UniProtKB/TrEMBL annotation:
Family matches, as Pfam families: DUF2388
Superkingdom of source: Bacteria
Assigned keywords, A-Z: Signal
Name assigned to this protein: Holliday junction resolvasome, helicase subunit
InterPro entries per the UniProt record, alphabetical: CHP02448 (IPR012661)
Signal peptide: 1-21
Length: 105
């Protein structure tokens, strides 16, 4: 009886480990996919706006915004964010992500 319990416990442990690993992989794939989609969309927009005067003028304001974790919002950054959202209305990115993208230009 003791060996049957040990075998049952080992089988249960193996199933639980597999289920945990599978759910971890699915969760990780979903998060990475969402980040990748946002990153691709942001990079597409920033590559097309890389020579835009409104966006380039907002780099200092974007740096202040990122450094203050969104507390300092300059006028040039606000204009650039509005301009970007008008140019790409389907873009799914928050202000911090766009400010970081502006800094990468």
């Amino acid at each position: 009886m003791n060996s049957v319990r040990l075998f049952g416990f080992a089988a249960l442990l193996a199933l639980a480990t597999t289920a945990s690993a599978t759910s971890f992989v699915v969760t990780t794939d979903a998060v990475v996919g969402a980040i990748g989609a946002t990153s691709d969309a942001t990079s597409d927009v920033t590559s097309s706006l890389g020579d835009d005067k409104v966006v380039l003028a907002a780099r200092d304001d974007a740096a202040s915004f990122v450094a203050s974790q969104g507390h300092i919002r300059g006028v040039r950054l606000e204009a650039a964010l509005l301009h970007i959202r008008q140019q790409a209305p389907n873009l799914v990115a928050d202000d911090l992500q766009l400010a970081q993208a502006i800094l990468s230009l």
